[in-house]
Amino acid sequence: MSRSGPGRGPTLRPVSSDRSVADLRRDYGLAGLDERELAPTWLAQFDRWFGQAAGLVEPNAVVLATATPAGVPSARTVLLKAYDERGLVVFTNLTSRKAAEALANPVATLLFSWVDLERQVSVEGTVEQVDRAETEAYFRSRPRSSQVGAWVSRQSEVIAGRQVLTARQAELEARFEGADVPVPGFWGGLRVVPAVVEFWQGRPSRLHDRLRFRRAAGGWVVERLSP
């Protein structure tokens, strides 16, 4: 997509038949990742890198991959809303495809791609539903428009057109006028509880650094993976 004009950034030349996708390459060399530099826990290392990504656009944007019980995968970009030693949390409509898959087959992968830093972090683990008190506390922190929006969208359902959303939005804004927007019973949080957390740093000649924390019987172990 091309963008131009004041404050919109440079005009981007689209990839076309006279410009090979295979030629869209760059060598990475901003930094390395050495075992001696690694934080003692996955959480401390993630917190360090997340803080360094703070100046990027949507640093908390993350691809969430789930699968049906039959193993059919799907993926989408969501926004991380919390993380601590228990895991990483996103909030969603619990009737959506991602939530339905995550609750029926409670395993998932999260992938943070911080291209400008030549870094990515992947998290593999089990999925648990966030308790209601935590869900309600987060919902109350959202802008009112987003609270209403949670009621408007029956996420992942087929709709006839945009007018379905605008009509339902107007209806719900009128219904909740002058009152607090209640937390929908069909809305909540999903926590990915890590079993593996891999930190990837781009390096020259595609010889990237890959260090992962892996949960084992005696605690966490750190391993270097070949690129």
Show unreliable segments: 1-7
**Separate helix tally:** 5
Principal-axis shape: globular
What structural category characterises the helix and strand content?
Answer: alpha+beta
Please state roughly what percent of the residues sit in beta strands, choosing from under 5%, 5-15%, 15-25%, 25-35%, 35-45% or over 45%: 25-35%
Distance between the termini: 31 Å
The overall strand count is: 9
In helices, the fraction of residues equals 10-25%
Query: Helix and strand succession?
Result: HEEEEHEEHHHEEE
Describe what you observe in this structure:
- With 227 residues, the chain is an alpha+beta fold.
- It contains 5 helices and 9 strands; from the N terminus they run H-E-E-E-E-H-E-E-H-H-H-E-E-E.
- The chain has helices spanning 42-52, 97-104, 132-141, 144-152, 162-175; strands at residues 61-67, 73-79, 82-84, 87-93, 107-114, 119-129, 187-201, 209-216, 219-224.
- Strands 1, 2, 3, 4, 5, 6, 7, 8 and 9 form a 9-stranded antiparallel beta sheet that branches.
- A hairpin with a 4-residue loop joins strand 5 (107-114) and strand 6.
- Helix 4 packs across helix 5.
- The longest helix is centred in the last third of the chain and has 14 residues, at 162-175.
- The radius of gyration is 21 Å and the shape is globular.
